[in-house]
């Protein structure tokens, strides 16, 4: 196609193909974390996913090299999350982080490795949507106990610690995993796709 | 004749269930909404999924009534909290599963067009749905090819060298995806996907009185909760 | 009408012209067959005619090439859509929708037709081509032939003046080709101009008005149908072309199916075998099967008759539904089997040809020897994915040779190949055979079966 800065139809189809791959990896991460860390699956999900999806993200960025691709991927991801019954905040999270990640990658002209890595870390935080309901869960549980006339102060304090702790854990874990996953992705792109002359 | 809702009505129910979760409606209001949502599965002839969802939800409500009042200790409290969490997510999951399993791609596209969603979102969405089965097929082929090379035969072996397994699976998958993206673009462009002007749909979507009625009925528990009745 | 004057095209990032100084005229209503070896420029011409060049495949275009007055240098791909319908080689990737009706409706929807007009078009198209039973089905559940018929229907739905087909039959069996043939005949009778780039010439011989031979991007010769049919077989083969009549090969293949197995050094045998993917999927019965070391056996039969399922079971990827195979253990068979897949892209994992063929090799000391025997020495450091289709296939065969495995299955190794490249693949089969391997070839190619297989099994 002739070079333009706007997204062309083949670009949109490419985005669709890579979003499907990303979605499959998220699904694998969902089942994987539920299987390996039952109970804490939502906490490790973003990290797990960030660890394995670097290749897909980096290849999409390397192929398109223009603004809009990552944003559209975030929006489409959000739409699919919403219709597959995920909380609507996942939807918002994916869109916002998608656009932010796109902007960061654009600052490095989609070529700077550090820029892309930072962009990938941010994009991975888009998957924090499913973590947020943890709060609702705690509140709802406490409300539930209170409604039944049980003393909930002890429980509320206990879970407040766990939740704050888990949140920090999730943030740090995702950062580390996204960095590792992103670097792995960049290495693979260089090893295979650049050498084969595809990007 | 199975009855199905208009995609826009499904979207409304999806948003409504999300709002239910967001605003912590009371258990009674939630149960009413879930009954209405589950009824849709039976209306559209999805008996199996309907029954499965009903059982799961009833079990979780049962835990709510019988286990939580007597829950003592950290572990039991934690598990109870988990069950409350899952129960609260279920309206979203049920309405999502309904929307997902009863909407064809054509209806989805037509619905999105009627909601004035731009083509730059619709095209990737269609591609995603189109590409899912291809990924599954590709994966099977790649695993067979790996088996012939004696690499990671079986799922346990796959986890033994995770980085290598990821490379061997993802690289052929990505290479092929790259080719498919090109072929799909060529096919779509020769079929006029880039034609200017409003694109239409063969399927005609119309909101029936039944759709509107169902949307309103589902809203009632929510309004009753807001009004403090439920 | 279509006219090309002194037209040349070079793809971006390539060194040589894919099409050189082409002069050709195609009258309205003509049916033209473009033939020649792989990479001769015939696909490039089809892309010029349907506007994909240079809108999608960019490069350097000079000279004139007009399709019903449209000039690719000025007109965009959208302008071609109402005038040209296209069918491509790979049935798996040339549809954009997940169900058949939607695929037929897709061009109409893009053109902005109203719902009832689209429905009428789809119904008429299905009635015209006898596609009614295929409507409202998931495309993923169709056979390759059914997919190509839907693709042809979708190409015709906007009532184009020109149909461009790029190797539409390379993945099809004879029954499916006959059905596609009838669809094309119908369009020809309606006066539609048809351009087909094709390796297999026999099926289209009665419809073609003219044959155009390409070589290295140049138009080498043109014959009208009668002249072309009069050419002796040896002349066609010298030009790298497939025969116009395959009856004799069909006969020979059937004769070879009567031959008994040599019985010396049997490697795998099976009795009263039923193969399938599980309870819900169809099951295929094979009463007797045997393959010996040092023989090439062709496995033939219609699409969907269980050839691949049988091959996978013999390789140890699947358990048989019932019956007995020797060796009985799946693991043991898998250890001694290798399959060269129809789409070799799935089985290339490494970042250089040398590493690729060494992956899982049990005879690494033979590496250089095998690479040079297959003409891969100069490519040893290249990334396998940067190679041409034929080269990739040779890399996969090299892996098979170095793996030291004795049971080698090749799935449709000659689909979409011209005569010249088909004989090259056949020589590779012979090399495997001389190494002492038992070679099973799943194929629709009767010429290959007749010429190079020791025996043929029809399912």
Brief sketch in words of this structure:
The complex is a heterotrimer of chains A (about 200), B (about 230) and C (about 450). With about 200 residues, chain A is mainly α.
Tell me about this structure:
The complex is a heterotrimer of chains A (199), B (230) and C (459). Chain A is an all-alpha fold. Chain A is built from eight helices and no strands. Chain A has one domain. In chain A, α3 crosses α8. Chain B has nine helices and no strands. Chain B is flat, with a radius of gyration of 23 Å. The two termini of chain B are 35 Å apart. By secondary structure, chain C is an alpha/beta fold. Chain C is 35% helix and 24% strand. The relative contact order of chain C is 0.11. The interface between A and C is small, with 9 and 9 residues.
Any chance you could write out the topology, listing elements then pairs?
The complex is a heterotrimer of chains A (about 200), B (about 230) and C (about 450).
Chain A: H1 9-36, H2 41-52, H3 54-64, H4 69-83, H5 88-107, H6 113-125, H7 133-147, H8 153-194
Helix pairs in contact in A: 1-2, 1-3, 1-4, 2-6, 2-8, 3-8, 4-5, 5-6, 6-8, 7-8
Chain B: H1 7-22, H2 27-43, H3 47-67, H4 74-102, H5 105-114, H6 119-149, H7 155-160, H8 162-190, H9 209-226
Chain C: E1 2-11, E2 19-26, E3 31-35, H1 42-49, H2 52-55, E4 59-67, H3 77-80, E5 84-87, H4 100-110, H5 115-129, H6 144-156, E6 162-166, H7 174-189, E7 193-197, E8 210-215, E9 218-224, H8 225-230, H9 233-238, H10 247-258, E10 266-276, E11 283-292, E12 296-300, H11 307-315, E13 322-326, H12 330-335, E14 337-340, H13 353-358, H14 367-373, H15 389-402, E15 407-411, H16 419-434, E16 438-442, H17 446-452, E17 455-458
Parallel strand pairs in C: 3-7, 3-8, 5-6, 6-7, 12-16, 12-17, 14-15, 15-16
Antiparallel strand pairs in C: 1-2, 1-4, 8-9, 10-11, 10-13
Helix pairs in contact in C: 4-5, 4-6, 6-7, 10-17, 15-16
């Amino acid at each position: 196609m002739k070079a333009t800065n706007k997204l062309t139809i083949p670009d949109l189809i490419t985005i669709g193909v890579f979003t499907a791959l990303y979605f499959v990896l998220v699904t694998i991460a969902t089942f994987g974390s539920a299987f390996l860390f039952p109970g804490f699956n939502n906490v490790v999900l973003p990290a797990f996913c960030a660890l394995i999806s670097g290749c897909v993200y980096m290849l999409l960025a390397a192929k398109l090299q223009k603004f809009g691709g990552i944003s559209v991927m975030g929006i489409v991801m959000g739409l699919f999350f919403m219709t597959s019954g995920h909380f609507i905040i996942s939807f918002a999270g994916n869109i916002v982080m998608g656009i932010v990640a796109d902007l960061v990658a654009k600052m490095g002209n989609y070529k700077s490795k550090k820029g892309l890595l930072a962009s990938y870390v941010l994009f991975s935080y888009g998957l924090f949507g499913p973590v947020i309901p943890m709060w609702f869960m705690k509140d709802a549980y406490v409300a539930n106990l209170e409604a039944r006339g049980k003393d909930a102060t002890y429980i509320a304090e206990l879970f407040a610690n766990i939740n704050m702790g888990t949140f920090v854990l999730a943030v740090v874990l995702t950062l580390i995993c996204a960095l590792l996953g992103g670097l792995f992705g960049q290495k693979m792109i260089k090893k295979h796709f650049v050498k084969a002359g595809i990007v | 004749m199975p009855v199905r809702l208009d995609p826009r009505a499904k979207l409304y129910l999806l948003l409504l269930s999300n709002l239910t979760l967001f605003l912590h409606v009371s258990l009674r209001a939630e149960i009413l909404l879930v009954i209405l949502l589950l009824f849709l599965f039976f209306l559209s002839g999805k008996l199996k999924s309907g029954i499965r969802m009903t059982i799961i939800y009833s079990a979780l409500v049962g835990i709510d009534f019988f286990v939580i009042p007597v829950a003592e200790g950290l572990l039991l409290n934690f598990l109870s909290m988990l069950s409350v969490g899952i129960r609260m997510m279920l309206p979203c999951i049920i309405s999502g599963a309904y929307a997902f399993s009863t909407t064809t791609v054509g209806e989805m596209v037509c619905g999105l067009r009627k909601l004035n969603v731009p083509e730059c979102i619709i095209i990737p969405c269609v591609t995603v749905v189109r590409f899912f089965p291809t990924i599954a097929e590709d994966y099977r082929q790649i695993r067979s090819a790996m088996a012939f090379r004696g690499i990671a035969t079986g799922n346990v072996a796959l986890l033994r060298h995770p980085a290598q397994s990821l490379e061997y699976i993802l690289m052929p998958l990505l290479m092929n995806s790259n080719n498919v993206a090109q072929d799909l673009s060529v096919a779509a462009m020769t079929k006029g996907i880039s034609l200017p002007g409003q694109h239409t749909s063969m399927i005609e979507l119309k909101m029936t009185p039944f759709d509107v009625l169902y949307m309103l009925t589902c809203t009632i528990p929510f309004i009753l909760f807001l009004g403090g009745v439920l | 009408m279509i006219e090309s004057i002194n037209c040349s095209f070079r793809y971006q990032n390539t060194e040589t012209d894919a099409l050189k100084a082409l002069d050709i005229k195609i009258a309205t209503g003509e049916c033209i067959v473009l033939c020649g070896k792989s990479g001769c420029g015939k696909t490039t011409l089809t892309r010029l005619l349907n506007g994909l060049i240079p809108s999608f495949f960019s490069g350097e275009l000079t000279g004139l090439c007009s399709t019903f007055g449209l000039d690719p240098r000025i007109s965009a791909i959208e302008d071609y859509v109402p005038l040209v319908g296209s069918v491509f080689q790979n049935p798996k990737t040339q549809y954009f929708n997940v169900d058949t009706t939607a695929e037929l409706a897709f061009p109409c929807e893009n053109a902005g037709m109203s719902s009832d007009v689209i429905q009428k078009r789809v119904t008429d198209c299905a009635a015209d081509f006898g596609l009614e039973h295929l409507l409202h089905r998931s495309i993923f559940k169709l056979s390759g032939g059914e997919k190509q018929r839907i693709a042809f229907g979708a190409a015709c739905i906007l009532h184009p003046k020109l149909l461009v087909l790029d190797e539409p039959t390379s993945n099809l069996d004879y029954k499916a080709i006959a059905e596609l043939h009838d669809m094309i005949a119908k369009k020809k009778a309606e006066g539609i101009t048809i351009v087909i780039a094709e390796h297999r010439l026999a099926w289209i011989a009665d419809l073609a008005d003219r044959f155009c031979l390409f070589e290295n991007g140049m138009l080498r010769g043109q014959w009208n149908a009668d002249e072309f049919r009069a050419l002796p077989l040896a002349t066609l083969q010298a030009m790298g072309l497939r025969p116009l009549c395959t009856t004799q090969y069909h006969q020979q293949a059937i004769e070879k199916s009567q031959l008994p197995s040599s019985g010396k050094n049997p490697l795998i045998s099976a009795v009263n075998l039923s193969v399938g993917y599980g309870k819900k999927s169809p099951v295929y019965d094979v009463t007797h099967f045997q393959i010996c070391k040092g023989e090439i056996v062709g496995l033939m039969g219609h699409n969907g008759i269980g050839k691949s399922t049988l091959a996978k079971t013999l390789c140890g990827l699947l358990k048989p539904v019932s019956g007995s195979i020797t060796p009985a253990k799946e693991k043991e068979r898998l250890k001694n089997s290798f399959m060269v897949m129809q789409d070799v892209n799935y089985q290339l994992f490494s970042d250089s040809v040398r590493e690729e063929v060494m992956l899982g090799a049990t005879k690494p000391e033979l590496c250089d020897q095998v690479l040079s025997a297959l003409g891969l020495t100069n490519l040893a450091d290249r990334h396998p994915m940067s190679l041409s289709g034929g080269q990739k296939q040779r890399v996969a065969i090299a892996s098979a040779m170095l793996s030291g495995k004795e049971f080698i299955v090749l799935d449709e190794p000659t689909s979409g190949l011209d005569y010249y490249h088909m004989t090259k693949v056949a020589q590779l089969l012979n090399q495997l055979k001389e190494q002492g391997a038992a070679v099973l070839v799943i194929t629709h190619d009767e010429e290959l079966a007749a010429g190079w297989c020791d025996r043929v099994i029809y399912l």
